[in-house]
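Good morning C.,

I know you're traveling, so I'll keep this short. The sequence:
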Amino acid sequence: MNCWGQPLYFRQSGRRQVKLALPPGFAQQCFAPELAAFFRRYPQLELQTNVSVLPETLSGENNELAVRHLSTLVSGLVCEKLQDVCLMPVCSAEYLASHPRLEDRLQQVAEGAGDQQPVSASVDCCLIYNQQQPDWHKVYPLLGINPDRERAYHCNTSVNVLDAVRHHVGIGLLESSLIGRELASGELISLLAKPLPASRHMYVVYSDKVLLSDDALIVKDWLLDTFGQYPQA
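The tokens, ready to paste straight into the viewer:
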């Protein structure tokens, strides 16, 4: 019920509402900055977003659309690729400057001299893990880091990782499309010259058993058009 005693699905404004589920990082860093442009373009539509790390139910009554990270296509869903995801290990400039052993190790790796230090040696850093992100193992050898020798901070969304990195907690592994502004401003620094391909990519998905409404089709096409070419750092 809303404050006028009306059910929430009843819209006196006459605007039509589309429900979609989004992952937290994408919702905050990519989707939200484009919302004003969406509403200017489609003044007849309203959106209801459900932000969660868990797969939301897709049906005519619940979410019609979702953006999901997938490593393989899922039975029962129509999956349209939104983005090839690339990853970057990043930290704040302040964090890197205050951790000389990490700076030295990165310089050794860049010069091809990383094997001069034993793998077991710590560089006194903190690794920030997103429980939804399975690709950290690709990064350790590229940075010359032994994860068993470093501190760890575990969280469950990319938003948490980004906040921790911004507050100089340590090194986070983030999708490059989520941190373009932070890298451009110099707030964050990438520890690799090139981003890494992720094992999961981003898709717009919907049930293959429920016919999308015309309004949901508009939103789907807008998602693909807007974020299909979203800048990768």
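Safe travels,
E.
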